[in-house]
Each structure stands twice: as C-alpha cells, then as structure tokens.
Design brief:
By secondary structure, the protein is an alpha/beta fold. The protein has helices at residues 16-27, 47-53, 64-74, 93-102, 122-136, 154-157, 171-181, 201-213, 215-221, 223-228, 245-276, and strands at residues 6-12, 34-40, 57-60, 79-84, 87-89, 108-116, 151-153, 186-196. It has an 8-stranded mixed beta sheet, with helices on both faces. It is globular and about 45 Å long. The N and C termini lie far apart (57 Å). The mean pLDDT is 91.
Length: 277
Amino acid sequence: MNNPLVSINIATYNSAKTLVKCLESVKQQAYKDFEIVIMDSYSKDGTQDIAKSYGARIVFAPTLALARKAGADESRGKYILILDSDQVLEPNVLEMCVKACEEEYYDGATLFEKSLITRNTFVERVIAYDKEIFHSLQDDDPMAGTAIPRFFKTEFFKRIEFEKNPPITFEHTIIHHKIVQMGAKIKFINAYVWHHETTTIWEVARKFFRYGYYYIPAFKFNKGLAICHSMPRRTYFHYKALRNPVLFVGLFYVYFVKAASSALGAFVYLVSRKNND
C-alpha cells in the first residue's frame, strides 16, 4: 500500500476540555503519514496552545461552514479526514480508510461511530442507541440516510463551491451530498470513531435551537436535503429499533425536543431578520 499524506481537519471553538483526548487518538494512529489542521473560531480558552503542542497548523474562521473551506484550502494531503474536537479515533482508522481508497479504489469512507457514555443519563443512552441503529444498518445514503462520510479524496473536497455565506446547519451533510453528486464512490468501513454526546435534554434543546436558527438558509440552499433531514430518521421504523422498547420511545421523545427547539430557533431567526429589514 502506498503511504499518501492524510490531512486531519479538526474544527474547534473553546475545545480545550476534549481536544487533548482527540489529538492523543490521532497521535496513536498506526498510520503515521498525516498532518493536523486545526480550524479555530477564535477560542478564548487553551485550545490554540493545545493544538500547537501537537504540531498542528491553525487557521481561523468565524463559523463551522467557513472552517471547512479554510481547512480544505490549508490541507496538503491526498485525503482529508473531518474530525470533531470531541471525537476519539480507534488506532486503525486512518490505516483502514487509506486502504479502502488506495487498494479498493474508493473515493471516501463512512466510519462506524459510537457514543462515549460519561454520565449514563437517559438522553446519552438514547443518542447512543440511535447511533448504533443507523450505523449498524450502514445508512449513509446522501439524501435520506443519516451516517455521513468523514474521509474524502482531497480533490473532491476542494471542488466543492463554498458560497460566501454557506449554510451552517447540515453543512457536513451538504458536503457529503455534493461529493457524491460528483461521482465519488463511498465505502462504509468498520473503523470506529467515539463521540462525546450531549448528556441532558436541556443540552439537546440548546443545540437544536442553534441548528433551527440557521435552518432557513440551509433550506433555501437545498430544500430536498433539509426536508429529508428534518423528518424522524427512517431507521426508527426498522425492526432493530424495537429491540429496546424504552429506548425506542426515547428516540421519539428526543426527536420531539429537537423538532420543537429547531422550530423555535427558526422562528427567532425570522423575527430577527424582519426587525433588521
């Protein structure tokens, strides 16, 4: 197998609490031909110092969507891995992704994601159950699916046209959709990424209020994709979702909170725009 350079793109904002574990997992990769590009939104904690201590290059961008472009522009690798600052990689992730692309001629890879349970709350267990279902079903269809690729050939990623004000909500899903439209072949591989999840329903509400606030620009950008990803996941209606009846009910409980919070966020966005006009 050839050893092409992989650019690991990590978006950060006040991420000091989780960034060390994330970067330690990168450092422990069996595949060593990588560079780390941190796209920071002007953190006020120790995020930048931590990034520098791991030899990362840092670029700055005010929003997550613009950070994706900044990271891609700065990347020198043949491949880009999109990683969140609260995620932890299994040691074989890069090796398996590169192998799928170099030896099996794929253009990207969807990774199997699992949840890191830290407080064992009901919400954490529901989100972990949700993630287990749609990843076990390998549901990474670019329009109706839920799992999204994190590993791409850089040549595809850099061909994406990023508008001056790209939508913040669904930005990763939009990247996936655009790259598949270019003809990229994506493989679902059993390489694991662990993700810190929100632990309370209040945290879920706050998170999806923010998503809802930026929902309308995303809807205008791609109506079909926004609608598909606003509905309850299709995997909720698969028999696997019924294996745990309590968590199955929890899926719809959490979805209701997400939907209500997003709707409120969208309403606030409309009111704010009207007041500014």
